[in-house]
From TrEMBL:
It comes from the Bacteria. The keyword Transmembrane applies. Signal peptide: none annotated. GO terms for molecular function: xanthine transmembrane transporter activity. It is found in: Cell membrane. It comes from Methylobacterium frigidaeris. InterPro entries: NCS2 (IPR006043), UacT-like (IPR017588), Xan_ur_permease (IPR006042). Belongs to the nucleobase:cation symporter-2 (NCS2) (TC 2.A.40) family. It is a multi-pass membrane protein. This is Uric acid transporter UacT.
Length: 466
């Protein structure tokens, strides 16, 4: 049995454990990773082959960005177990660009490249905001991240979105999804959930570590038996297809789209700060200002490479943060291996099609566990907060969580405000972050970087012992 490394983040696992754990991370993020290129490709009216290429390019760039973030390079990469994927914060602005003929796909890529360069330049300045994130703020943000993700997990368990957008007489219209919340799909999601819980309860060692993977395998077998998992696309997909830069042509640079994408990058960086702090707590390695700067710089570099390799802005995927909490495996080399697998999937469409064939209802059973673990991590961090001696901290948590729920419970709440503000207002995580930071500064003032580090260490200790 291998001896555990003194620093669990730096532990190099044997291949027999490393590969299944990495595959588990890939399966968890795959549905989210391919969603954005599907949405943008269809909005642009691209043909099936071009949309398929967008997906392959996205998987390839996911792998590159993950390696940059997890493996790290001098001055770039937080070197924690992070999986990178396309951010949904950019979908709205990119759909608006796609609807403007003058901008189109090449204009989107120009804005993504501009946003990536902007992210690289401002990362050191954003990292200086770390003193604004004591445990009362960090715990609240991570709690909201987990609660926000539960909507994704629940819809996965239901088989997608409750409504679908279809073109009726040339006009997009919302219609009910006939496959949503069918008894068979809910049964599969329940089987996955029960399998994971049973393995966590009675499994030991490595078996418990790969509980999510084994739950997904069990759900996939049942889905195939019920005729809900189809492999025809796997047979038709080629074994190898290269992903070349600027496949669709040279990018075009327009001032307003670039400025819009820079705003998106600010949203991404604030959300990433919450993810990194969550991982720091889960892994027992508190994030310093220098760590944060390297991580945010990797977001910018990943986005820059995304624009070059025909895809979109990148950020850390929060569902994989939840998976680290579920498995207890903190080694960053697991996600490094996951990045290599994503690279291979991008270059091997047949393998990508096999992973894509896993029904969403299967992922839904796993999502309920993982996303709940993110929320539980936020709750554990809040146990380090002094609510009795500083009762005003209760207002920080209560009001920030309330603001974070607005986009979830009332998606059209801000529809009458200027459209330019929607990227900021449609992110519950961003709203909760801003409100928590402002209220904490109002009630408690702003501490030093050193104090923030001591607070983070205290929160990590509390999380270890709860």
């Amino acid at each position: 049995m291998p001896v555990e490394h003194a620093d669990a983040v730096e532990e190099m696992l044997p291949p027999a454990r490393l590969v299944p754990l990495a595959v588990q991370h890939v399966l968890v993020m795959y549905a989210g990773a391919v969603a954005v290129p599907l949405i943008i490709g269809r909005a642009l009216g691209l043909g099936p082959e071009e949309v398929a290429f967008l997906i392959s390019a996205d998987l390839f760039a996911c792998g590159l960005a993950t390696l940059i973030q997890s493996a790290g390079f001098p001055g770039v990469g937080i070197r924690l177990p992070v999986m990178m994927g396309v951010t949904f914060a950019a979908v709205g602005p990119m759909l608006s660009m796609a609807a403007t003929p003058v901008i189109g796909l090449l204009g989107i890529y120009g804005s993504v490249i501009g946003g990536g360069v902007f992210g690289l330049l401002v990362a050191p300045f954003v990292s200086r905001l770390l003193p604004l994130f004591p445990p009362v703020v960090t715990g609240t943000i991570i709690l909201v991240i987990g609660i926000s993700l539960m909507r994704v997990g629940i819809n996965w368990a239901g088989g997608g979105q409750p409504t679908l957008t279809k073109m009726i007489d040339g006009v997009p219209a919302a219609v009910p999804n006939p496959n949503y919340a069918q008894a068979g799909g809910l049964g599969i999601a329940l089987l996955v959930l029960l399998t994971i819980l049973a393995l966590i309860r009675w499994g030991r060692g490595f078996l418990a570590n790969v509980a999510v993977l084994l739950g997904i395998v069990a759900g996939s077998v049942l889905a195939a038996f019920l005729g809900l998992m189809h492999l025809d696309k796997v047979a038709a997909a080629p074994w190898f297809a290269p992903v070349l830069p600027f496949h669709f042509g040279w990018p075009q640079f327009h001032l307003v789209p670039i400025a819009t994408m820079c705003v998106v990058m600010i949203v991404v960086m604030i959300e990433s700060t919450g993810m990194f702090l969550a991982l720091g707590e889960i892994t027992g390695r508190p994030v310093s200002q220098k760590d944060l700067a390297r991580g945010l710089r990797a977001d910018g570099l990943g986005t820059l490479l995304g624009g070059i390799f025909n895809t979109f802005p990148y950020t850390s995927f929060s569902q994989n943060v939840g998976l680290v909490g579920v498995t207890g495996v903190r080694s960053r080399y697991v996600t490094v291996a996951g990045g290599v697998i994503m690279l291979a999937l991008g270059l091997a469409p047949k393998m990508a099609a096999l992973v894509e064939a896993v029904p969403q209802v299967v992922l839904g059973g796993a999502g309920l566990v993982m996303f709940g673990m993110v929320a539980a991590t936020g709750a554990r961090i809040l146990t380090a907060v002094d609510f009795r001696g500083q009762p005003k901290n209760q207002f920080v948590v209560a009001i920030a969580v309330g603001f974070g729920m607005i986009p979830l419970v009332a998606p059209t709440f801000f529809r009458n405000l200027p459209h330019a503000l929607h990227p900021l207002l449609e992110s519950g995580i961003l709203l909760a972050s801003i409100v928590a930071v402002v209220l904490n500064a109002f009630f408690n003032g702003v501490g030093s970087t050193e104090q923030a580090g001591r607070d983070a260490s205290a929160a990590a200790a509390a999380a270890e012992h709860v």
